[in-house]
């Protein structure tokens, strides 16, 4: 077995395979397209216990009032993972496409009607509904992403194996039995993605717990299971944010998993954090530490570039920045795994 592993490693290092591997980058684009297709295809309604078919496109953040308020010419900016550079970058997305996922049936789309029609959040119950919708959005996206990546892994391995057989033939090498399950353990290209589902497991576990907890609170009109902290600004921010956040310390002795909200309307902005009630003390400590240094506006921008890609920005806000400033923010956005519980030593972020 050692001999074939050595040959396989040599094969992986050949220029032929490296050139071929560029073609596998294209498969990642196809995987991303498959993920988007999954998020545009109706499934089962995600409302508690409902078995109806969902509409094709629910909005994770309300289109009218919230997203439209910060759009320009029907366009917003949203982080997209650029496969060619392996970086997250702000990219244009149409208003009708922004934050869409197949979440709820037509009946339960109306569950959010109260704050959607009013175009602002006036009660904790309405904030809870937005938290619930964000949880569903995140869960649906995880499932679509996993399906797409599994398809990519399978296609990649099949093509790699075909090329390896050709490589053996061209080099007059022959082995009676080739166990690709063992050889794949030495494929760095594949292993860089093979832990994808495993890495998402803690996030999915948290979101499922939040789903159960928020159901109990919404049904009984209380907030006993999901803690919510609401901060308000009397000005409208040029960004809408609604997504999962994971904060950890350098030694990972303490960590927080949260749902973050920043929802603008014409005259104000809702800023909120949601969490499992057991984490309330840690959340209070985190918020006290951050607000000792950051303003609300800086805190939201910190969330944007360090903690979640679930945000939509007014295009001119980004466009008006100098190139060097954009590059700095993109660099920060692509190193967010290093963010710690305490206030980080960095220049305060001032995009808006």
Q: Your description of this structure?
A:
This protein is of the alpha+beta class. The protein folds into two domains: 2-59 and 103-118 and 130-213; 62-98 and 225-352, no CATH class. Helix content is 50%, strand content 17%. The strands form three sheets. It has a five-stranded antiparallel beta sheet with strand order 5-8-7-6-9, with helices on both faces. Strands 1-4 form a two-stranded antiparallel ribbon. A hairpin with a 4-residue loop joins strand 2 and strand 3 (87-94). Helix 2 packs antiparallel against helix 6. It starts with a helix and ends in a 19-residue tail after the last helix.
Annotation keywords:
five-stranded antiparallel sheet; elongated; single chain
How many β-strand runs?
A: 9
Query: How much of the polypeptide forms β-strand, as a percent range?
Result: 15-25%
Share in helix: 40-55%
Tally of separate helices: 13
What's the number of domains?
A: 2
Strand order of the largest sheet: 5-8-7-6-9
User: What is the ordering of alpha helices and beta strands?
Assistant: HHEHEEEHHHHHHEEEEHHEHH
Largest sheet: number of strands, sense, barrel closure: 5 strands, antiparallel
* Cα Rg: 23 Å
Shape: elongated
Uncertain spans, ≥5 residues at pLDDT below 50? Answer: 338-345
Tell me the structural class: alpha+beta
Mean pLDDT: 87
- N- to C-terminal distance: 59 Å
């Amino acid at each position: 077995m050692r001999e074939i592993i050595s040959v396989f490693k040599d094969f992986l290092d050949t220029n032929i395979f490296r050139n071929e591997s560029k073609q596998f980058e294209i498969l990642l684009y196809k995987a991303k397209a498959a993920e988007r297709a999954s998020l545009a295809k109706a499934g089962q309604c995600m409302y508690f216990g409902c078995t109806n078919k969902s509409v094709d496109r629910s909005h994770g953040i309300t289109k009218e009032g919230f997203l439209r308020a910060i759009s320009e010419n029907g366009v917003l900016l949203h982080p997209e993972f650029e496969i060619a550079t392996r970086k997250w970058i702000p990219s244009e997305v149409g208003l009708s496409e922004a934050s869409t996922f197949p979440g709820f049936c037509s009946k339960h789309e109306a569950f959010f009607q109260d704050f959607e029609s009013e175009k602002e959040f006036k009660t904790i119950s309405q904030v809870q509904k937005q938290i619930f919708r964000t949880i569903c959005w995140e869960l649906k996206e995880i499932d679509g992403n996993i399906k797409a990546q599994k398809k990519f892994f399978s296609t990649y391995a099949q093509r790699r194996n075909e090329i390896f057989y050709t490589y053996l033939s061209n080099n007059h090498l022959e082995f009676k039995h080739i166990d690709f399950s063992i050889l794949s353990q030495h494929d760095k290209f594949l292993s860089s993605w093979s832990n994808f589902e495993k890495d998402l497991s803690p996030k999915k576990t948290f979101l499922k717990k939040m789903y159960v907890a928020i159901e109990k609170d919404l049904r009984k009109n209380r907030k006993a299971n999901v803690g919510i902290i609401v901060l308000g600004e009397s000005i409208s921010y040029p960004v809408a944010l609604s997504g999962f956040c994971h904060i950890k310390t350098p030694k990972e002795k303490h960590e927080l998993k949260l749902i973050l909200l920043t929802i603008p309307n014409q005259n104000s902005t809702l800023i909120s954090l949601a969490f499992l009630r057991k984490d309330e003390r840690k959340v209070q400590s985190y918020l006290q530490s951050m607000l000792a240094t950051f303003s609300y506006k800086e805190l939201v921008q910190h969330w944007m570039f360090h903690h979640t890609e679930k945000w939509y920005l007014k295009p001119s806000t980004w466009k008006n920045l100098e190139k060097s400033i954009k590059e700095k923010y993109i660099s920060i956005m692509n190193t967010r795994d290093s963010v710690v519980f305490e206030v980080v030593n960095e220049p305060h972020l001032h995009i808006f």
